[in-house]
């Protein structure tokens, strides 16, 4: 699946966002290694820290379907991921992260390029 096709899925997911406070609708679509595409949207809450970003929504949905870190190869997001989501993208070992910049161009990075010096659990 091309980045543009994955971004189209993210755009469709953004239409389902629940964003009554910010009116900032974000969608994400993750591509699993088995070919499945799983989408998610941001979901806001009046207590702002309790909202969920689109990327985390899609990853949580993938986890609920039995997928684990390393099972997801790419993600497309309709906006630049926040710092917390960058940690999620690292931990889930995405090879490619595509997102739309504010000017409409598409950026593509490896997850580790977006968050250098990541935090990891100690091995043991």
Note down, in words, how this protein is organized.
With 124 residues, this protein is α+β, with helices and mostly antiparallel strands. It has a single domain (3-114), classed as Cytidine Deaminase, domain 2. 29% of the residues lie in helices and 21% in strands. The chain has helices at residues 3-14, 54-64, 83-91, 111-114; strands at 27-32, 37-41, 72-77, 96-100, 106-109. Strand 3, helix 3 (83-91) and strand 4 form a beta-alpha-beta unit. The model has no long low-confidence stretch (mean pLDDT 94).
Q: Can you count the beta strands? A: 5
Strand-and-helix sequence, N→C?
Answer: HEEHEHEEH
The CATH topology annotation reads as Cytidine Deaminase, domain 2
Distance between the termini: 37 Å
Give the class from helix and strand content and strand pairing.
Answer: alpha+beta
Estimate the global geometry from the Cα principal axes.
Answer: globular
Strand percent estimate: 15-25%
**Which CATH architecture is right?**
3-Layer(aba) Sandwich
- Going across the major beta sheet, what is the strand order? 2-1-3-4-5
CATH superfamily: Cytidine Deaminase, domain 2
Number of helices: 4
Mean pLDDT: 94
Described by strand count, sense and barrel closure, the largest sheet is: 5 strands, mixed
Task: Give the tally of structural domains.
Answer: 1
- Radius of gyration from CA coordinates: 14 Å
For the record, what CATH class applies?
Alpha Beta
Low-confidence stretches: none
Helix content: 25-40%
């Amino acid at each position: 699946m091309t980045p543009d096709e994955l971004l189209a899925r993210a755009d469709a997911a953004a239409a389902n966002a629940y964003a009554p406070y910010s009116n900032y609708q974000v969608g994400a679509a993750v591509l699993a290694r088995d070919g499945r595409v799983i989408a998610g949207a941001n979901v806001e809450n009046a207590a702002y820290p309790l909202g969920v970003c689109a990327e985390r929504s899609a990853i949580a949905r993938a986890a609920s379907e039995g997928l684990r870190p390393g099972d997801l190869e790419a993600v497309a997001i309709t906006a630049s991921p926040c710092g917390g989501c960058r940690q999620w993208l690292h931990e889930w070992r995405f090879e490619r992260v595509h997102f739309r910049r504010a000017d409409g161009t598409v950026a593509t990075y490896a997850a580790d390029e977006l968050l250098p010096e990541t935090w990891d659990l100690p091995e043991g």
